[in-house]
């Protein structure tokens, strides 16, 4: 069952140890809690206490040589069927399995932020065995509702897959569903894709609630288990959608205090994840959905780029230094400039991998060639652009599939996992979230490498695979049909 994840065995055994340490740590929590309580309480809310609590706890933990934090981060991905990689290639946990496990773990509540739903083949008039994992997921959600776990779904007001009955099915089993009219509110869509389970576990990534995201589309995400500080912080973003999904809601000029975040770019969450010192925070877009203290998604992306000294590897579906949905389009070179600046100003190696598929707008190519042309190795400027093509093979009957939909960036310092295409609208009007995470390298102990190293390995796998094609490659047809 865990065939997709070579390191699962190691992690599972590690958990027992962590569990024991957590019990030992409980005494320490209590002590620290009182220590924090006697210091003057900060002006704001609960989370502040929590974070302070964790920080001093961490300090104590270090002194006592204890690993008391049970947060755990796992990368999860979907690979389209029939996309073979060389034997021994790195891979992440299977997303389909990770989602099913999260549902099994749930005891009280599941909050899902989603763009649209389409978990069954008949939703889009397709009869193909690759829709099974999506159908199983939908059944599992009904079972979860049957055991009294509450399920709240925030979804976009306008969305593709109008024929899908998934949400009606879940409503009939007791789920709560709110449609967020982002079009009226900000002129965008609700494009976020994340789960918060029991206020303790989270999933964030590129996958839609669509069966094709499990078997036909390339996706990347992260799951963080047992981490109430981060989960409750992401829950605040879920709550922004939830209140905006109520009838006649408007975006408040100032969000109420309890929506403010105390975990951000300037003060990331710090904890030990399986023994690795980890910093992490969530960003959000658009700015109107960023209450006080929440880092804007664009600022998160720029900060990660600025932090890089060695390399910036980016994998996105779309890359346009313009707006996409405003007419006429506006030039918007913010991210393009930042990449060039890193390459020229700091000698950072930039690799950009963009998806190319049946529906790729060919006006993307001049922008990609322009960025590639900036490269000048003799002057120490290193920029490389490739397109990733998922061979359609015998899956041509499945619409809008066979594409790499991942959206992430990795540098030698940090991993960024997001939900936005790289063009202006995704940062200014569409709602999305990003996770920025950094782990310190382990001190020679066995176990999984830091998350940014795991993500680098996945990027390198794709970058050096035969599916990644240089812009001048003779294998690149104008229509992005893979020529082998
Ligand atoms: C969360 O932590 C508890 C106690 O340490 C452990 O038993 C449980 O397996 C962890 N859950 C996950 C999903 O890692
Ligand atoms: C959605 O349903 C309508 C009416 O039943 C049908 O005409 C249309 O083809 C369906 N669309 C898809 C994508 O299945
Ligand atoms: C779906 O396809 C299978 C075999 O490919 C066939 O047995 C089944 O009848 C089909 N179902 C529908 C509803 O067309
Ligand atoms: C679910 O909750 C209802 C009402 O609170 C209760 O009657 C029922 O027994 C519960 N079912 C389970 C499986 O816990
Ligand atoms: C803040 O408080 C209001 C009123 O009690 C509540 O409706 C809302 O859900 C809370 N928001 C968050 C993020 O907890
Ligand atoms: C589709 O192609 C894959 C390999 O490319 C092959 O293994 C599989 O049997 C094919 N399926 C069908 C139904 O032709
Ligand atoms: C990103 O861009 C592609 C291509 O323009 C589009 O199909 C897709 O819906 C956009 N959004 C996301 C979330 O990928
Ligand atoms: C596709 O996703 C993988 C991660 O699973 C990533 O390494 C690759 O760069 C992505 N390619 C594109 C074109 O987005």
TrEMBL record:
Domain PLD phosphodiesterase: 186-213, 400-426
PROSITE patterns (UniProt xref): PLD (PS50035)
Keyword DNA-binding (UniProt): no
GO molecular function: single-stranded DNA 5'-3' DNA exonuclease activity
EC number: 3.1.16.1
Recorded superkingdom: Eukaryota
Transmembrane segments: 17-36
GO biological process: one example: lipid metabolic process
Membrane topology: Single-pass type II membrane protein
Name of the protein described by the UniProt record: spleen exonuclease
Source organism of this protein record: Fukomys damarensis (Damaraland mole rat)
Lineage: Eukaryota, Metazoa, Chordata, Craniata, Vertebrata
